[in-house]
Each structure stands twice: as C-alpha cells, then as structure tokens.
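Section handout 9: paired folding examples.
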Amino acid sequence: MLNADPLLRRPKLVTAALLTRALDGLRPKVSSPVEIWQKLTDQYVVDLDAVAALLPATEPETHWLPARD
C-alpha cells in the first residue's frame, strides 16, 4: 500500500453493503486478490478488517507426507 495523501479526498466505504458493491465492480477489472486490495486502498478509505471478512482467504497448498510401508 502506498502512503495515503491526506489532501486527496477519497470516498469512504463504511458499510458492508457499500464495500460489497465496490468489490463487485472491481472483480471484473482485476485478476488477483492482491490487486483488489491495492485498488481498494488506492481509491477508497476502507475498513481493512471488513475487506478481509468479505474476501476469501487463500489456503496453503496441502503437502502430503510419503506413506510408510
């Protein structure tokens, strides 16, 4: 995330409904969750915890141990 410019006015997404509408508008334009985070924080003032609750968490790849004989 870039340092926020305090002189630049950005819309605030303070409710889950507004945040959901913004996410729905951004999803066709971006290809990864990282880009969604970047676009949201560059264009809006958001509650990061609310964004994290709405975006699916990335799960680590399962690493299976070899079977014993």
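Moving on to protein 2 of 2.
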Amino acid sequence: MNKSFVFLIIIVFICMVFSNKIFSIANSPSESKLYINVFDPKSLMFTFYQYDQIQNKSKSLLSKETADYTAFAYSEGNNKLYFADGISDHTIQLFENNLNTNQMKQLTTVFNNVDFIQIDKEQKMIFMRVLLRDEFRNFHMATYNLETQKIQIWEEENKDRSVLDFNYNPNNNQLIVVSFSETEDQKKLDEANKNQTKLQPPKYSLDIYDMEGQKKKHIADVERFISGASLAPDVSSVIISYDEAVDSPISHVVEIDIKSKKVKPLLDRSGIYSKIRSVKFDEKKEGFYFLSSVIDEKKGYSILKIPKESVLAYYDIKKKKVKNIWRAEKSVIVNYSADNF
C-alpha cells in the first residue's frame, strides 16, 4: 500500500478518536446536493448525510457503528445507500441498505477489502477500489453491476500495479485513475530506511479509463505525494492535490493540461487549510471541492496532533477564493460526493 495513502488514513483515524460535533455553513457555490460521510469517534458512529446547499439543510441518511474505515455512494433514485463494512471473516465487503425498508444486503464476498466507492450517473454501476482475497498490497479497480450482480476486476493479472485513487466523472462517463508500481514503492521505502533519509514518492501514473475498464489515455507521470485527482468535465485537464512530504501539512493543488502537459498552480495552502485531499471538479469546471484539516497555528503541526476541524470546502478558480461548505469540529469528514459528479 502506498505510504502517503497510509499516512492519510492514519491521520483520519487519529482525528476520529476525538470527535463529537458537526455543523454546516450556508452560501454554497453550487446547487448540487452533497453526500458527506462523518465519523464521530465518541460514539464510534459513521453518519451519512445528504446536504442541500440551496436550503442549507442536512438530512441523516444512515448512522452505523463500525470499527472499519468505510466509504459510501448514494442512489437517490432508488433511495439506496452502498457502503463498505466488515464481516465475520475479517474482510471488508460491499453492502446495500434500502432506506425505504431499512433492509441491509451484502453484495460481495470475493474481496479482501473494498473502499473508495462511487456510482455511475445511471445508478446501475458501482466503482470500487479493492484488494483481492490473496493480496494485501496490490489494489485493483473493480465494478459491481447492480442489475446483473456481476463483478468485473480491471487488469486482474497485473500483480505489481496498484491503484492509489480514482474519480468517476458523470459528465463524460470516464474515470481518472492514479496508480503506481509496488516494486518501486517498496524499493524507495527500503532506501529511506537504509540511508535514514526522507521517504520519496513513487512515480504515479495518471490515466483515463472508460466505464468498461479500458485505458483510453495516459496523461502524465507525477512524483509527488498525491492525495486526490479529478478529471475535468470536458476532459481537457486534470487536477491533483499533493503534500510536500509524507509528514508535511503543506499541500498544493495544480491543474495539468492534457494536450499541452502544462502544469498550472491553483491552490497552495498551509496553516488553516492543511492536508488538502479528495479534490473534485464541479460540473462546470468553475472550481473544485476539497477536504482539508484545520490546524492550530499556535501549536504547530505534528503527525500525532489532532486537527481542530475537518473541512469540506470549495475553491472558485476565477475569483481565487475558498469557501467553507461543511465543517466538522472534533469529527472527521471521511469522504464525500455530489449529485453532479
């Protein structure tokens, strides 16, 4: 598993241990509904919210106690929630909860782990990042067809390439997939340990895939600690977020032009907004959403220090301004999605 991903998960769960309060903020930049997964470690509950940005109203879709990391996707048309949860054999599988009947159903059994769940715009296909039963480091992309109940594992035969992150864009029915070589990653870890030097990121490959798992285009190779990626609705560019180092709070967001390969800085933050991650273009490419941690500047930054807040925010590219959408005090926003991406 990639070290920057491990670090981000560690920070999320360290924050989780001390959370108990959430509140939202009005005057949002978009009319779309947001779906937000918040963990409250005081009660050990994950709560999945629907947030209407126009009315500034939140609705709890489901609360569930679980000791495992979970992601989710929501089908508004069917009023069903899809999420990852652990079972008795200590694996994590895909589940469905019918919110009309409150009936829960396990959909998969074949994986070692399921995370990073998204649903397509027709609400018929679930995209997932998965570990296979016989693997512990090599993450794959997979889909679950909700109509046929069939599972498709992308590039299953590749035992070295591992998926760090992905993002599906319903405006073009394509995905940006971020992957890396496990062999190279392990080599860099061994070198850092041997020489007592800072860990260097592997070379991440940014690629566009269609919904059937076919690679359509290679965008770039990036040697940064990537924490998020999003494909533009018009497929002209991709944005990525990354940290300066695995133990640094300083984050950056840049846009890569797919045709020219030119890199344009969009957002550079430290201090209040740190550890920027999970960047997502809006449907008009006017800006992007992102998650970050708010750190007490007087106390400085430490890997083991608890962030003051977890924030879902929006960056307006033209105005070059950040607007908070949802803030979780002493709670952690684990992941989010919107009804337009």
